[in-house]
Design goal:
The protein has a single domain, classed as Glycosidases (TIM Barrel), CATH 3.20.20. Helices cover 35% and strands 13% of the residues. The protein has ten helices and eleven strands. Strand 7, helix 7 and strand 8 form a beta-alpha-beta unit. The longest helix has 19 residues.
Amino acid sequence: MKLLRILITLMVVLISTSCIYSNDSSYPQTKKKWHGVHILRVYTSQDVDTLIRLVPRISQLGLNAIILELDFNFKYESHPELILQKDPITKEKASILTKICKKNGIKLIPMFQCLGHQSWAKETYPLLLNYPEFDITPGAYPNNDSIYCREWDPLNPSVNHIVFELLDELIDAFAADAFHVGMDEVFLLGDKKSPTTRSKDPAILFAKAVNDLYNHLVKKRHIEMLMWSDRLIDGGKYDFGEWQSSFNGTAPAIDMIPRDIIMCPWHYEDRKSYPSIPMFLAKGFRVLPASYEDTTAVKSLIAYSYDFAENDNMIGHLFTTWSVHSIDSLLSFDAIKVGLTTLKRFESNIK
């Protein structure tokens, strides 16, 4: 098994040098591995105060990157109608958090869920509440029944006009040099109840959404772009199921988007192998695999991915914390503690 992984690694290195979109020297090649954590439960300015207090201890644990999911919890000046919280995160608090992260050697990356996840359960989020014409399935699925989450329409140009203004505010407030756009668990592209995308190719639609964001973030704002990668993994080829991979036609988009996007494939169960990792590496993407709460699965994912650690495009590991309901609990989250110990062991062997 070890010999097979070594052979796969060599193949990945050879193939990645001849990609259609080879890595552009204009963006930095990461040498120090990222030990990242995705944080969801920072909704208010008071939550930011808690996170500011914890940043030195987060750094001491061995984490050096935070992906902070903000969505509609920021005090947007361009579109105040899209603010979800009564005590939203302010740009002043964002600046303080950014400075304390930098002081403690932590890369702070804002995140905004793009395209999908525009609702949860029966709650529809502010964008589609205030602009129902942006809904990919307008008027369909009352109370969000029979769907996972609502999605915006990637063919409506007015969506980008508003969303890009929100992203720009977050980039400026957090002085960001990288941005995570979400993009996971998208299921409604080409839906029969979607007037604009019905019968259209989901891969082309998904690639358009990705490329629109790329053109704004990378080409215009000159920052790096990260995204969840499940919609680019072919569920018919890779046995990951309908959530971690795509059965709805979006996977071919992988060959329609630039290769300098950082891919975050998330895999939460224990497996012998995680073939999405060499697949993305072979196509020339940088890869930041993401784990969750099963400590055995965390160790397995790190062990497998770090067989490719000498490839500069395997940039580290990302811990997700969906079940952590208070910021203070991050410090005692077993998956992070076990994972960081595992990372230290594997990284000690990297040449």
